[in-house]
Amino acid sequence: MEIIDFPILSLIIFLPLIGAILLLFISNYSLIRWAALTVTLVDCLLAIVLLLSFDSTTASMQFRETHDWVPDLGISYSLGVDGISVLFLFLTAFLGWICVVASWKAITSKLKEFMISLLVMQSLMLGVFSALDLFLFYVLWEAMLIPMYIIIGVWGGPNRVYAAFKFFLYTLAGSLLFLVGIIVLYLESGRTFDILILMNGDYSFDIQFWVFLAFLVAFAVKVPMVPVHTWLPDAHVEAPTAGSIILAGVLLKMGAYGFLRFSLPMLPEASQYFAPLVVGLSGLAIVYGGFLALAQTDLKKLIAYSSVSHMGFVTLGLFTFNSNGLTGAVLQMFNHGITTGALFLIIGLVYERTHTRRIADYGGLMKVIPIYTLFLGVFAFASMAVPGTNGFIGELLILSGAFGANILMGVIAIIGALLAAVYMLGLFRQVALGPISPSCGDNLWDVDLREISGLVGLAVFVFWLGLYPAPFVDILTPSLDHLLVQVLGP
Description:
Shape: globular
Oligomer: single chain
Strand content: under 5%
Number of helices: 20
Radius of gyration: 21 Å
Largest sheet: 2 strands, antiparallel
Helix content: over 70%
């Protein structure tokens, strides 16, 4: 039940930004790390308070804040969360301190600038999930490109500049079409950027048709959907560990969140018209991404291509237009942020020790670093949706929704799930089992308490959602039921 009467959303959004400003006046590397960790932990605690205070019996926006910004143009500073956005606000805040922990030793140069970029990024992402003004949403959506570009381009691998430019250009191109669609809706709705008003607009099918296409390109790049997915492996491979966690955990959710928040409720007729196209592209992503992951020899590339396949499940569930599919899709968005973020953390930890990401360079880790291997197994099994882990409930609901809407798509999704089992089991067998690789001898040491803290935090949600997903489903259900009414009618 909503019991908070102060602007907690603004506090959650601006706290990391305030922390970034404070870091400008700190020069000691140890203090910089601890200050960043403190800010992100406090922000996470505030997000937990928000989640516990959330009223899960209503689809209405809660914790509303509205202030005039540019009233002559209908622009306002308007915030609020429903059952969908509150989960991703929490996910973003939760992954913030994980990113700081992951960067504790990995970032050794320009640490202040890195932590400032990380905290600014955190503020912008939190703002995106809270914005109820479309102009404000777009400003934050675009501004996110800058710190992410810097994180990849400055602290990334050998090809970081190429990967950063590719990431920036792909996402900027999609965002320009998003802007065109926003302007059309603004003019058609009587010059307002209020998202709740735009959701109830009565737009002709022709308007919906072209705006949906513009939104589709923008969101497809962010998801990313095939064939506009090629920026993702390069960005993941070159990004530092924290950058990969942010990409996998939060940024990939922005595209699917765009479908949920804008395309489906604002453009219901066009959404139904284009559903076969999106479902077809989703099926292609599930299978194509799975085969690409199967062919990889680089740890990060394998997980990156698996993300293409897993996000294909998400977009498939979104466009089944039934309760199971939608619930499974949103749960899988959250699950993917936890599981894939954890896998990138796992890879980053071992890369710090060996400085190689070639799968063939590993072997016998279970005998050398058993605690690390235990966590690797947990997250690998979660990624292939083993019962009892978080991936299972989301995939099960999506498959149920897919078979209810289109049997062929259900069969294709089953094939994708089988491929996930093949490449993740193959990865675990090569890395954890068998004889000890020469590069995995004295060069390795097991995870310490700092690293375990992040891994345990992520593992909690693997088993919580896998064994008792009811609290998360209860939060989502009213908002998703309302969304279905907006798309299909009463």
